[in-house]
From TrEMBL:
The keyword Hydrolase applies. Residues 166-590 form the UvrD-like helicase ATP-binding domain. Pfam families: UvrD_C_2. The keyword ATP-binding applies. This is HelD family protein. It comes from Micromonospora rubida.
Length: 738
């Protein structure tokens, strides 16, 4: 019945989308209303398709004999009194599904977990929440234990799944925490931090839709591989409006893909770079050592250093960003030059007062301003700069680096020096800082318009794709099919784009992505321990309200400029006004594997304790030593054997960064299906990764290769090894060099 309703809702949205796309003409207001309807119906069609799997996953029977079905979205009985047929898991009344226990049943008599495959129920688990009936073996703190364990031991697919069916009490508290303020979620590996962060995004959008749909929600994850890994979770929760970004993508128009030594990134991440950039900007406000000669209509004007210095100081005193102060500087310099001209042509041969009046001098100034030679001189003395120009020029020139960064050592300055050509993730917060110091000029605004246009095209194509896709699902042989078929035949992306341009027609996420100055309604940061002080500054600028959820594990910090303590990272922005929640149970890592990881954890800090594992796998991890020249062969042998053990799961092979090429080639030769490289396909049965790529991911079985080298490759090597050892849900093997 529920699926029947879902089909009906999707058909209706698809039909309305088609009608809106067809309609033309009308007033500007009518067209703009139509564009928002297009957006709304396109989103609905997408949402109704995305909640297909596991639409309804639970049932609550209450003490007063009422039955509620719990699911991914709310569905109401539109033929009668609008009674809820399916309750959205985020609705307050659905909360008992996650919180009720035998000790605290919250008016619930029975909780039922339903498992479905496509549209068939395949299993159900009932819990009778009655202390006297409770099974004596039940794990007291877990809710829906049987379903939870089934979810945890199921084979992995290479894409993260949502946990909406089995959210646990400590996780629910975080997911439903209030919107305002900064919430830090600290938890060891596999405690569900990422899952909780994603479900919180969905919960906040549902509960605070009006605020957040206009300001948007930003979710920051450590790298592209990770974002691909989590990309299906929010759509399956019927939320498509969250902007997912890596820290390297947070400066609109720049995709930071260049790599650099970890030590260089560490320097760029320091808070001291604020001062370095401010100096780099000041360094571009140039006072020449000698007078500048400027030829204007065959006369030579002299601009002496004192005049330039006075103009510069006056401009600086305005305290405004560099590009926006250029006008002040220009006025000062042009005044000085105009006085020279006036002096020359207006001198009274009889020795009286200058013959030119104020209007004449004003005219001279106007003319001088247009002179190419004068403009060239002004550009040299106080150039209008983009953040990219400032930073590229700085890195390319050791003399500029020395002037801007007197506090760094020679070796540190040498690490900053490099030729132009692409940006690294650590450059992005510096570009953002530079943008603040420089202020926006016309070129930045033009670049933004161009980005918006690109999004509009993408959007127009997306809407047509949805209209096209919905046709085959919804209206196969129905009479209306013809009408919907017509949409994509009659309208192409260019025509839709034309329409979109009149009213910007963008989703909040797209508008936010194009605009550096966008203030998000809520920002969620995953693996937040990796952020440098400079990256925190950028993020805080994107979220002036400080309504944030910060998720991470300080024991897993790999980046050299990363966060060893939440208090230190947050102090400059929210002082002590942040809340800490801790997750203490590891759902991913079985006890046998956690015991191995715990030994490494004590090397990071003897006071740290690993999270408690929720289960044992019954498979002890293995640990073998091999000769260096046998490593590739032993690894491929072990990988082939492990892959054969997997039913439908995934094997992750985690290797030191310095061994990827050598071992990757060997692995692919033995197992051609293995994915290796910068952006390996995570859905492959076997994937080779560095620790950096494996952050936040998980596999049924994991091989960790040459752990000593993983440790040696970075000053935070033990944290890296701890991350590597905690990626498996079932089996772990370690290959060491003799
Ligand atoms: N309540 C739950 N029900 C079912 N599965 C869960 C639950 N909580 C966590 N999991 C599963 O446990 C695994 C680990 O979760 P997640 O990746 O969110 O952990 P994490 O704390 O972010 O780990 P890491 O610090 O290693 O990145 C995932 O497969 C997730 O689906």
């Amino acid at each position: 019945m529920l699926y029947g309703r879902l089909d009906g809702m999707r058909e209706q949205a698809a039909r309305r989308l088609a009608e809106e796309l067809h309609a033309t003409g009308g007033t500007l207001q009518a067209r703009s209303q139509r564009d928002s309807s297009v957006q709304m119906y396109a989103e609905q069609v997408e949402q109704f398709s995305a909640v297909e799997n596991g639409l309804c996953f639970g049932r609550l029977d209450t003490d007063d004999d009422v039955r509620h079905y719990i699911g991914r979205i709310g569905i109401f009985d539109t033929s009668g009194d609008y009674d809820p047929l399916l309750m959205d898991w985020r609705a307050p009344a659905a909360r008992a599904f996650y919180l009720a226990t035998a000790a605290n049943p919250q008016g619930v008599r029975r909780r039922r977990h339903l498992r479905t495959r496509q549209r068939k129920v395949t299993a159900l688990n009932d819990e009778v929440l009655d202390l006297s009936a409770a099974s004596p073996t039940a794990h007291e703190e877990l809710t829906g234990e049987a379903s939870l364990l089934a979810a945890l031991t199921a084979g992995r697919t290479g894409r993260m799944r949502d946990i909406v069916e089995t959210i646990q009490v400590e996780q629910d508290r975080i997911i439903r925490a209030d919107l305002p303020g900064t919430l830090v979620v600290q938890g060891g590996p596999g405690t569900g931090k990422t899952a909780v962060a994603l479900h919180r995004a969905a919960y906040l959008l549902y509960t605070h839709r009006s605020v957040l749909s206009s300001r948007g929600v930003l979710l920051v994850g450590p790298n592209e591989t990770f974002l691909r890994y989590i990309s299906q979770v929010l759509p399956a929760l019927a939320e498509t409006g969250v902007l997912l970004r890596t820290p390297g993508d947070l400066f609109p128009g720049v995709g930071a893909r260049r790599s650099e030594p970890a030590e260089a990134a560490a320097i760029k991440g320091r808070a001291g770079m604020v001062q370095v950039l401010a100096e780099a900007v000041r360094d571009r406000q140039w006072v020449p050592g000698e007078p500048l000669e400027i030829e204007v209509e065959r006369e030579v004007l002299r601009l002496d250093p004192e005049t330039v210095r006075a103009a510069r100081d006056r401009a600086r005193r305005t305290g405004r960003p560099h590009n926006l102060t250029r006008a002040v500087f220009d006025v000062e310099v042009v005044h000085a030059l105009a006085d020279q001209v006036a002096e020359r042509i207006g001198t009274d041969p009889l020795g009286g007062e200058n013959l030119l009046d104020e209007a004449d001098v004003a005219e001279i100034r106007r003319e001088l301003r247009e002179e190419p030679e004068v403009r060239a001189a002004l550009d040299q003395l106080w150039p209008v700069l983009t953040p990219q120009r400032l930073l590229a020029d700085l890195y390319a020139d050791p003399a500029r680096i020395a002037a801007a960064a007197p506090g760094l050592t020679d070796a540190e300055r040498a690490l900053l020096h490099r030729e132009p050509g692409g940006w690294t993730p650590a450059d992005v917060p510096l570009l953002d800082e530079a943008a603040e110091l420089l202020g926006e000029d016309d070129r930045t605004a033009a670049a933004r318009r161009q980005r918006i246009r690109a999004f509009q095209r993408e959007y127009a194509e997306g809407v047509l794709e949805i209209a096209r896709g919905s046709r085959s699902i919804d209206v196969e042989d129905e009479a209306e099919g013809g009408e919907i078929l017509g949409v994509t035949d009659l309208l192409d992306a260019d025509r839709l784009l034309e329409r979109q341009e009149e009213s910007d027609g963008l989703t909040t996420a797209q508008r936010a992505a194009a605009d550096r100055g966008w203030a998000f309604g809520h920002v969620i940061v995953d693996e937040a321990q990796e952020l440098s002080p400079m990256a925190w500054r950028l993020l805080m600028r994107r979220c002036p309200s400080r309504s944030m959820t910060i998720v991470g594990d300080v024991a897993q910090t790999g980046a050299l400029a990363g966060t060893p303590s939440w208090a230190d990272a947050l102090e400059p922005y929210v002082a002590q006004r942040w809340r800490l929640e801790e997750l203490t149970v590891s759902y991913r890592t079985p006890a046998e594997i956690m015991a191995v990881a715990a030994e490494v954890l004590t090397k990071i800090d003897p006071h740290l304790r690993p999270p408690r594992s929720v289960r044992e796998s019954g498979v002890p991890p293995w640990d073998r030593r091999v000769a260096e020249d046998r490593l590739a062969a032993e690894l491929t042998g072990a990988a082939v054997a492990e892959a054969a053990e997997l039913a439908d799961g995934r094997l992750g092979v985690i290797v030191p960064a310095g061994r990827v090429d050598e071992l990757g080639t060997a692995l692919v030769a033995a197992l051609p299906e293995a994915a290796v490289g910068e952006h390996p396909e995570l859905e492959s049965r076997v994937v080779m990764l560095t620790v950096g790529q494996a952050k936040g991911l998980e596999f049924d079985s994991v091989l960790v290769v040459d752990p000593e080298r993983i440790v040696a490759e970075s000053p935070r090597g033990h944290s890296d090894l701890y991350v590597a050892l905690t990626r498996a849900t079932q089996r772990l093997g370690i290959l060491r060099i003799n």
